[in-house]
Amino acid sequence: MAAATTYRQGMRAGLPFLLPTLAIGVSFGVVTRSLGWDLGAPIVMSAIVYSGSAQFASSSVLGDGGTVFAAVLAAALVNARFLPMGIAFAPSLEGGPVRRAIEGQAVVDASWALANRGGRFDRKLLIGATLPQYVGWFAGTVIGALAGSAIGDPDKLGLDAMFPAFFLALLVPELQESRRARGAALIGGALALALTPLAPPGIPIVAASLAALVGVRQR
Amino acid sequence: MTEVWTTIGVLAVVGAVIKASGPVLVGGRELPGWANGVIALLAPALLAALVLVDTFASDRSLVVDARAAGLAAAIAAIAVRAPLLVVVVGAAAVTAAVRALT
């Protein structure tokens, strides 16, 4: 690769995501405390699971009286998108299986999209960009869990609208890449919306990745 | 609480396995040419789905609520090339305002 990126540059690229991730982390802390979780539970979960969508999915299943199995399944489905994303990232990683497995943990939506160079991935940029988001997510959860109901209903602050806005900001430059990219976005979006009433949460997002198959004849 | 802690423990392992499987199974092999074309389009396909589902899905139903106003604000902010933080905070502020008024 020509211009070598550093972890520091990756961290800088990930910095704009610190505040939104922190805010969503706060709302995760508040929501789980309102479900009656111990103080440590949301904090430990954010530290070792580190996946906003999966954590919200599983906590809401448990909150609705679902079983552990149902909660884990919901979260696994929500996170199934990391399978194709990990396969895409794989050739850009270095070293043996253990190091690859560990570095693969750095894949989160925003970093993956930032580090995408038309199918190749900038490894240091991806890992660096995840660091500020991890800090934001963890710190936000701690704040939310400690403050609990003192913060009030996080929905009132509109924090849940931050994520679609943030994914849209990543999507727009992708759409400017090519006609194929616009086609894939259109099919993927339509597929996800069509499946929402029909499939459990998470599946519509995974199914949207099938839209990328329109790229099969490229190159 | 036992259920919560069990879920957290199992999920930590399941999540790590999901994220590790691509990198470990594919290893350092180069993917075939056709796969590169597909992978390049994964980002637009997945991001479009995330935008729409996060805005219009409420569990298993499709709804147009305050989040749609937030997304409209985000579109406007992106159109005038506002910084990312403005896009994201603006979407939250508009969504909060609509919720406060309705």
Keywords for this structure?
heterodimer, A: 219 residues, mainly alpha, two-stranded antiparallel sheet, 12 helices, 2% strand, globular, B: 102 residues, 2 strands
Question: Can you tell me about this structure?
Answer:
The complex is a heterodimer of chains A (219) and B (102). With 219 residues, chain A is mostly helical. Chain A has twelve helices and two strands, in the order H-H-H-H-H-H-H-H-E-E-H-H-H-H. Chain A has a two-stranded antiparallel sheet with strand order 1-2. In chain A, helix 1 (7-14) packs across helix 9 (123-147) and helix 4 runs antiparallel to helix 5 (68-79). Chain B has 102 residues and is mostly helical. Helix content of chain B is 78%, strand content 4%. Chain B is built from five helices and two strands. Chain B has helices spanning 2-26, 33-40, 42-56, 66-79, 84-101, and strands spanning 57-58, 61-62. In chain B, helix 4 packs antiparallel against helix 5. The chains are: A mainly alpha (219), B mainly alpha (102). Chains A and B meet through helix 2, helix 3, helix 4, helix 5 and helix 6 of A and helix 1, helix 2, helix 3, strand 2 and helix 4 of B.
C-alpha termini separation of chain B: 36 Å
Could you give the order of the helices and strands of chain A? HHHHHHHHEEHHHH
**Which sequence of strands runs across the widest sheet of chain A?**
1-2
Tell the overall outline of chain B.
extended
Tally of helical runs of chain A? 12
Number of strands of chain B: 2
Specify the biggest β-sheet of chain A. Answer: 2 strands, antiparallel
Walk across the major sheet of chain B and give the strand order.
Answer: 1-2
Topology of helices and strands:
The complex is a heterodimer of chains A (219) and B (102).
Chain A: H1 7-14, H2 18-34, H3 40-48, H4 52-63, H5 68-79, H6 82-89, H7 97-104, H8 109-115, E1 116-117, E2 120-121, H9 123-147, H10 162-175, H11 179-195, H12 203-208
Antiparallel strand pairs in A: 1-2
Helix pairs in contact in A: 1-9, 2-3, 2-4, 2-9, 3-9, 4-5, 8-9
Chain B: H1 2-26, H2 33-40, H3 42-56, E1 57-58, E2 61-62, H4 66-79, H5 84-101
Antiparallel strand pairs in B: 1-2
Helix pairs in contact in B: 4-5
